[in-house]
Amino acid sequence: MAPANEEEEVRLLGKWPSPFSNRVVLALKLKGVEYKYSEENLANKSDDLLKYNPVYKKVPVLVHNGNPIAESLVILEYIDDTWTNNSFLSQDPYERALARFWSKTLDDKILPAIWNACWSDEKGREKAVEEALEALNILENEIKDKKFFGGETIGLVDIAANFIGYWVEILQEIAGLELLTVEKFPKVFKWSQEFINHPVIKEGLPPRDELFAFFKASASKK
After folding, report:
1. Which of 120, 139, 140, 162 could pair with 125 as two cysteines, CB 3.0-4.6 Å apart?
2. Alpha helices for 16-110 (secondary structure H)
3. Measured distance CA(65)–CA(63) in Å, rounded
4. With 60 as the cut, is the pLDDT of residue 191 above it?
5. E strands within the chain?
6. Span 81-91, average pLDDT
7. Which of 173, 169, 156, 171 has its CA nearest to residue 196?
8. Burial level of 63, CB count in 10 A (0-12/13-18/19+)?
9. How many Å apart are CA 82 and CA 75, to the nearest integer?
10. Beta bridge partners of 13
């Protein structure tokens, strides 16, 4: 358990199917930090969400002793700086910079490509799938033969890639696609199995059947 002041208050405003909210859940669990969770309805945003994230009005938001921090990657670094056990980032400046680069690349390039492929219509699907496969190939080349992107232990990039490790398998099944498979991307696939079977990660991921039902219902509304 992470060292904590008895007066310390940690609160997370999130949305359970969101991989971005889940990143913060995983980070707090890996650190052993106790927190209070508030599920947000983004169709009817709470006063707290508007108060704590007036700029983007989005989840996740971490509130630590009354101080709000928004944007999942920013929150992950804040958590790592605040609770120093089980570090997500290396002390080496170059390694830290690389981790930040790959985390940002996931959000800016890789996740959008895979998301678009899973939700594209027939007209744009071929191009979207091609871009998704290119994105996964970038990760395949980066993971090499490491157990995790962070080496032998889970680091910032692994947490940021939770969507790849867990959500993709569900979304591609719903969409009838084969994006991340052991045949196409053996190294990323192996990483995904290591990641989701890590005991703390396993405990922190949303139930698969509920996540599947949520996105299946979303797909049927298209």
Report:
1. 120
2. 19-31, 47-52, 72-82, 93-105
3. 6
4. yes
5. 10-14, 36-39, 61-64, 67-70
6. 96
7. 169
8. buried
9. 10
10. 38, 61
